[in-house]
Write a structure and sequence with these properties.
Blueprint: H1 2-25, H2 28-64, H3 69-112, H4 117-144
Helix pairs in contact: 1-2, 3-4
């Protein structure tokens, strides 16, 4: 577990260091290398974090078998709070991406034809609905705890 977390710290530190170096150089070749480094970072960091989480969760589950019911309930409620936080957080990240894409397109469309402002606002509102769904799921999860 410590090895996986150490690898993640090294990957992030090296990527940030090279990113600063490439940003200082500020030419086309360094931008391409920076994008390549970020891709490598994402494709190594995320699987390592998922592996660390997969190692951590079974240990928590097996640790609960030897404890009292109060400790087991506390641990399961902790995972419930984690699930609620993840549903809200991931939904808001998706909303940010969707509103960014739809909003910029809507702004371009409205600049060409101001009569379609109402239609574009509907699409932006639909994109914001993703965050509301995540919040509703969080409230439902917390209501069950």
């Amino acid at each position: 577990m410590e090895l996986i977390l150490a690898l993640n710290i090294i990957i992030v530190t090296v990527t940030v260091g090279f990113g600063i170096h490439y940003l200082i150089r500020n030419n086309e070749k360094s931008r391409k290398l920076l994008k390549k480094m970020l891709r490598v970072n994402v494709f190594t960091f995320v699987p390592l974090m998922l592996m660390a989480f997969a190692i951590l969760v079974p240990d928590a589950v097996f640790a609960m078998t030897d404890t009292t019911t109060e400790a087991a309930a506390s641990s399961s409620s902790g995972l419930g709070y984690l699930a609620a936080a993840l549903s809200t957080g991931l939904a808001t990240i998706g909303t940010g991406y969707a509103v960014g894409a739809v909003g910029s397109s809507a702004l371009g469309a409205v600049s060409e034809d101001p009569k379609i402002l109402g239609k574009t606002l509907i699409f932006v509102g639909l994109a914001e609905g993703i965050a509301i769904y995540g919040l509703i799921i969080s409230i439902m999860i917390i209501g069950r705890l």
